[in-house]
Amino acid sequence: MRLHSSLLRRWSLTLIAITGVTCALSAQTDDDRMQVDRPDQSQGTSVLAPRRLQLEWGVGGDSGAHNMELMLRYGLIPDLELRLGGQLERPHHGAVQFSTLTFSSKLSLFSGEGWIPAMALVGDLNYTPQEERRRLTGDLTLAFEQELTSGFYLTYNIGSAEGMRRLAVTAELGYDFSDRLSSFVEYYGVFGPAVHGCDLGLSYALTKDLLIDLSCGRTYYHSGGVSYAALGASFRL
Q1: Could you tell me the pLDDT band of residue 183, with boundaries at 50, 70 and 90?
Q2: What is the domain-level CATH number for residue 33?
């Protein structure tokens, strides 16, 4: 999901404009706020309540392709949810292809207290049909989240990538302008060889069960950087 740098600048200005307008909105009070795992790269520590279903969907693009992502999350038992996600990709000069299917689980380990962060363990089983050898791989991620001050929170991950062959880390600073509007700035990286990136975004809750998001970022490879942008929505049943 990457676009040209000029489009990245326009998306960034749009994010700033939306922030300025919506900061003036009055906050809603709701203890049952939606917690989503998009559009950032980090895994959060929240787990759905038993028998709750949540759909997280997004579309995006970069200089080489457009894609669409969908993830279904289901609360199985207290502190454990199951997830099924997939991605379709359409190169600018090619046909639509199915790129990734992921089945995963998230287990809440600790809810957090004081300076001890909330913790969760995510296990992924990935199927990549385009790969000739390692089509089925597994990875683990340990997620942490901590409130720094009122409105500010820090989320960070450490885990594996590409079937336990590479190290993946993220660090995200988030801020809640209100109970409806939140934002984030994030760094993410994969090592061996190293790939780095940064992104930012906004999420706005239209209702307590419907949330929309807008994000953009840039990934830096050895061959150069590629920009991307995405728009998404999440719905809780």
Answers
A1: very high
A2: 2.40.160.40
